[in-house]
Amino acid sequence: MQKKKLDGLMKLHLFKNITDQSLYLIWYELAKERCASKGDKVCLMSKSSSFNIKRKQFKVDLKDILKKKVNDIPTLTQRTNEGIEELVRVYDTSKELSEKINNDLLKETEGLYIIMSGKCEIRNPNNNYLVDTIQPNDFFGECDFFEAIGYNYFGDIIAIEDCTFLYISKDKLKLIPEYDKQVIRKNSMKNKNRIQDLVFQSTKVYGGNPYLIKY
Fold first, then answer.
1. Digit-coded pLDDT (tens) for 116-140
2. Domain 2-47+109-207: which CATH class?
3. Cβ atoms within 10 A of the Cβ of 165, count?
4. For a Cys staple, 141 with which of 95, 112, 165, 166, CB 3.0–4.6 Å?
C-alpha cells in the first residue's frame, strides 16, 4: 500500500523532475494525510489576494482610525499627561488590530494541500461567490509560500465531498532543498491558463485590471 501511494506521489505533476532524495523526504518525513468532511472549510482565502475585499476594507479602516487618533493628540510642544496616555492608547489599538490581522480574523493557509480524493469549491467569502470547483491532483495553499497565485487566491477552499489531502506544512516545505523547491514552484505554474481565466472572471465581479495581476 505504501509503495502504491508513493508511486502515486511520483506521478503528480507538482513533483515532476524533483530528485529522488526530495521525493522520499516528502513522502516519509514531511507530508501527512489530512481528511475533511463535506462542508468543512479546508483553508482560508489568501490575505495577499487583491480580491480579498474585506481585508482591503479593514486595512483602510485601520489607517483612518489611527490617523484620526494621532491628529487628535497634542503636538510635542504641548505634551501633557493626557496626550501621553492617548499615545499609549493608539499603540494598544494598532497592536490589537494587527494581532487580529495576523491571527484568526485573516488567517492564511498553513501549508500546501494536494487533493487525493473528493472535490472542493473555491468560494469568495466576501459575497459567497462560487469561483470554481477543484478535484483530485489539484492543489492549493502555495500562494504565500511560493509567492504565486493559486486557487486559494480567489476564495476559501471548502470541501463539497468527503476529501483526503496530502498536506505539507509551511515549516516542512522549508526543509525541501532549494533546487527542488524551485522545481515545485515552476510545476505549480502548469495551470497558468486556468488561473488566468479565474483572474479575468474575478476582475469582472470585483473590478480591477487583470493585466496588473502577476501570476
1. 999 999 999 888 999 999 999 999 9
2. mainly beta
3. 28
4. 112
